[in-house]
Amino acid sequence: MNPLSVAVIGAGPAGIYASDILSKSGLDVSIDLFERLPAPYGLVRYGVAPDHPRIKQIIVALYKILQRGDIRLIGNVEAGRDISVAELREHYDAIVLATGADTDAGLDIPGIDAPESYGGADFVSWYDAHPDHPRTWDLSAREVAVIGVGNVALDISRVLAKHPEDLMATEIPANVAAGLAASPVTDVHVFGRRGPAQVKFTPLELRELGHQNDVDVTVDEQDFEYDAGSEAALRASNQQRQVVKALEGYAMQDPAELTASRTIHIHLFEAPREVLLDDGGHVRALRTERTRLNGDGSVSGTGVLKDWPCQAVYRAVGYAGSPVEGLPFDSARHVVPNEGGRVLGEDGQPLRGVYATGWIRRGPVGLIGSTKSDAQETIGNLVADAHAGVLHAGAQDKAQVGHGAVVALLEQRGVPYTTWQGWELLDAYERALGESFGPVEDTTGQLRQRERVKVVSRAAMTAISRGDGATQDPSELIGQPDADRVPARLAHRLGQV
Question: N or C terminus: which one in the chain shows less Cβ crowding within 10 Å?
Answer without folding.
Answer: N
